[in-house]
Amino acid sequence: MPKLCERSRVKDLINVARADTIYDRLLDGLIDQAGEQVEGMTGRQFTKLERVEYHQSYEQSPYDPMPQYIWLEAFPIDLAETFSIVWAPANDHDVNGVALTNTAGQAPSYVIPNNGENTNSGAGGLVIVRGPLPAASLVLLPNLGQTFLGYAPQGFRVTYTGGYDFIDDTPSIPPDPMDDIEALAVPIALRQIVAQKIADDFLFSIRTERPKQTLYYPPGPRQSIMNTPTGLLLPWTPEQQQLLRPFRSKATI
Known about the structure:
2 domains, 23% helix, 253 residues, elongated, single chain, alpha+beta, four-stranded antiparallel β-sheet, three-stranded antiparallel β-sheet
């Protein structure tokens, strides 16, 4: 599961000392749960992994080729790792594909306009394939009980490494202002949104005894929910979801 904020960041918001471990198990579960929810709401994957994706292409005419737009599930793309695009009939990616390459001095076969988060100048996760693609073959295609002459479906197999590394949550004690700079990759704005959501729900649970069947209060002046299930996050409000909008895959908008 993606870890989109540091445990220490949540502790700062709920006024728990970073060295205090009583809530660590619970907070780790909430961070995992929040990361899974954010992936669902943004339509993308955040964990950095090597991936293989298959994408359908538009119908290609050999006389009027169009750029092809591929929206990858995980970004940013680590271009230091393997990145390849293979074009082939949609049912034959792994057998007779044609690899697309960028060669110095020639027009690029594909471009990545913005290898990062969404900005006004470009969307993250977008690859534009400019070709040239092999000429599409005219074939007989069945449709609603009839057969007509058309271009066979084509597609792309994209192999790449995309997403963010997990955050190293080993902050200095006392806090070191360099921790945020040294932690890997996830934008600070996104970390803060997720941490604030977890902190709000954590404090709400403490204040309202919600839900009674899962909260556990041991003897003594200090309340603890460290041994409870992790399903304590409230539904994200429209306002909270709006904060996530800049991090959505443009393919889902």
